[in-house]
Amino acid sequence: MLEIKNLHAEIDGKKILNGLTLTVADGEVAAIMGPNGSGKSTLSYVISGRAGYEVTEGEVLLDGVDLLQLDASERAAKGVFLAFQYPLEIPGVTTMTFLKASLNAQRKARGEAALSTPEFMKRVRAGADKLGVAQDMLRRALNVGFSGGEKKRMEILQMALLEPKFAILDETDSGLDIDALRIVSEGVNALRSPHRGFLVITHYQRLLDYIVPDRVHVMSAGRIVKTGGKDLALELEKTGYAGYIGEAA
Amino acid sequence: MNAQVTPMRTPAEMKIAADYETARATLAGQHDVARLRDNAFGLFLNAGLPHRRVEAWHYTDLRQALREALPVAAVPSATAVLAQGARLEALAPRVEGVDAVRIVLVDGFYISSLSDIARVPQGVSVRALADVLEEGAPDLIEALAAPGLGSGDSVLALNSAFMQGGVVIDVAAGTQVAEPIEIVTISTNDEAQSLYQRSLVRLGAGAKLTLVETDATEGAQAEQRNVALVVNLGTDAVLDHVFVPAQSSPASSQVAHLLVTLGHGCDLSSFTLARGGGLMRRQAFVRFDGEYAKAQFSGSNLLKGRDHSDTTMIVEHIAPHCESREYFKFVLDGDATGVFQGKVIVAPGAQKTDGKMKSQAILLSDGASMNNKPELEIFADDVVCGHGATVAQLDDEQVFYAQSRGIPKPEAEAMLLEAFVDEATDYVRHEGLRDMLTAHIAVWLAERRD
Description:
A: alpha/beta, 6-stranded mixed beta sheet, 4-stranded antiparallel beta sheet, B: 10-stranded mixed beta sheet, 10 helices
């Protein structure tokens, strides 16, 4: 279970999160919607441990573990995963090498033995097949020269391999055409499990047709201003965010 | 000698002058060789050690760095040779997967008893520099002198004056040498010393060779090395060259010259891996004499602490239709300094020259610095020449991305640095040597990380 309590965070002295409180239970898919600048991406970075954000107040707990005391790689080993809105290109590091380094680093941090190469290959191939990731992509430098859709599929492949406790999808629908959106969403849905929570950050309701949330939160000015069921997303699509911007102020 | 002696400016220069006077009578070679030495020393006496007001040495002030001149290494005693021989395999493990034919130099001197002389392939001859100098065959002396390359450089002149260690390797026309020849340098390193060494490698027409220079020196004594490799490539000859100088103690200095002439249609690839250790200057003087020749110079400089590493290249296109490439990487941590100076000169007749140079640096600390100075001097009108230099930091976003997947920050940085450096290593064509370099790089990155 992810528990965020009264979270305040700023970057370069600018306050972005202003007392955000949110709980995502195991097995729950929570969607966060909100206008540009409401702090959605900041929330994803603060949870995953990106440098540069100062948390001035509040707590972020995953299964009772205080994430804010850990660095990004330690949080990943505890089960936090962030699917990036703009996945980074890593020239000179093949996808396979990167995946193996990631998986084995997490296993090492948890005191587990490294996977043997054949076992690792088996898992990667199986995951890649499901997501329609071509084998030759695995031999290329990670994300270098990949299309937008390929990059997003690669994010989901990484998520599938790393089997996180809690996954954050930051604008995963951005830059995807309908076919890619369907493939990526199916990939995510396949990973839904009673033991895994999701935080799906999105601008638009469209993604939530494919990844149907249990709960929808509206974020504005660094706080959750409304919470509802999946129908809330449909309502927002009609009315827009205008009605909520005032509430946060 | 009659050279005009200008007042010596530093104790090191005075010591070098005194050492030369003492050594002169016993240095190998008569007549022409002695004249070559005296002329070269005269040049040194006039110019002195190069300093920051000498344009080519602006970023590497050798006069400042050489506070004292260390005693010149003597021919190692039989006991010293035996001692090094006993430790040879431990000091210099053979490169895994590369069945190289080894030539061993102790304190710069060729020691045939430690070398794989029985395995020297047919068509290849290996001789001690001293023997060649004593013989005094005019063509060889001229080849060793490498006229027109690096003229006026006082450090190269010093090498010409003092040269005593080293080997002369000749590969006969048409000989394709399958296994690499590896020149291993070991210093006894019992005492601080200076070492002057020059080797010559000549490839006849159509000959093919892979040459690797490694260094197995271990020890904390300071060394001042002044070494030179002269390379003459005949028509259509192919040379793959990899140079991995020692990681000397921090008070050490090394100037490693590469003097190259390229014949028609030949193909050279030369890579240097500098892993720091005091002051290092790699200076290459290259001349394209024949048409349709290609040369690729690449390297990586991995520097930390107060390491200083300078790569200076002067590439002269005399003949038309030739291609030169320079591609160097620098990783700088601590208070390290990197220097890349590349000058491409295209002579009036050298049409269709294709010359490019690139230097890329990553600075890992506030104290590290990088100096780039590319220069083009083009006197022909139908050429393609270019240069590029970048200085950057590691990309925080890439580091975070890797961290977010569970890779701890130091390992994420090492992974990204390795990828950065590998782009240069990829130019090494011999797979076994490429693996050797990758392994050295991994060791350096792991030491930095831990």
